[in-house]
Amino acid sequence: MRSAGAVALAGALLVGGCGLGDRVAGVHDAPAEQTGGAPLNEQTAQDIATRAIADASAALTGTGAAGEAARRRTLTGSALSVAEAMVSSKQTPTRSDPLTKPVVPQVLGIAKTSGWPRTMVTTTLDASSRRSLQVLVSARPSSPFVVSASVTMLSRASVPSLGRVADGIEALPATRASGLVVSPQGALGQLASAVAYPKPATPKNLATTDAFTTGLRAGAAAQAKALGTLGTYAQKHVTVPRLTNAYRLAGGGALVFGQLSRVDTITPSKSAKQLTLPADVARILGHRTTTKKVTVTYVEPVVLVVPATGQARVVGAVEQLVTAKES
Predict the structure, then answer these.
(1) pTM for the structure as a whole
(2) Which PROSITE patterns does its entry note (predicted)?
(3) Is-contact 324 296, C-beta < 8 A?
(4) Which of 39, 49, 80, 311 could form a disulfide with 75 if both were Cys (CB 3.0 to 4.6 A apart)?
């Protein structure tokens, strides 16, 4: 079921693409002087981000009711969706997993606002030089910042600068283009349609050459080919509008965080005696073969760069199995 080339997340917070260096926005010495704009100074934001990501990383390994409570206390949004999916798919990371070891985040931007919720964008680089991008959010004055999104950057992907941290960044409406070639939600919708199977759409404002998109398409085609006359395979994606966050880039365009929900459906033909299930699906269902229709769900947090002109592109993605059922 897992698509070839798509990025799998073993630890929701601490994985990402590699080799980005200074091409990633904000990966440089922070300016010493703050000129206003951001509601937090850089050092305070850095301290908050370090604590929030460390707490969330620790919560990933919790078990039982205490583990669930810790995840709900330190995670929200798509980051919580991924963490809960890891549990439901019986894929909880262990403390020996290097992906759960703390890393020091770097603050890339703090949304300009005098009220709440407040958000900031951060990046982490793990011990294997894999980079991820996060959104941290504080819902109200009495609430600490928690991790709302954490998305692996695709290999060789890069993100334009968000500008000086001290100046703050502009949060953009998800449903309006606001100087963009397409609205943030519109770009996510085009991505969802472009990776449908068996009838993917051709997007108007979105490039489809990234590893995530090509991997999903290739994986779906391979799955259908493997089934042959034994069954049919379909893949559908839908956006989750409430989890969309967009921020203005310094040179124009936007950095967009979103989530797709994916459903894979395998329907055996009348001639099929049984179908062999992938190992991760078999782990959930408790058996390796089936004669029934199988529905598998995934969560797919993504990050897109949407320019003022040209084509939007996917720069980060996570693919996490949620559950599987027979009918």
Answers:
(1) 0.86
(2) PROKAR_LIPOPROTEIN
(3) yes
(4) 80
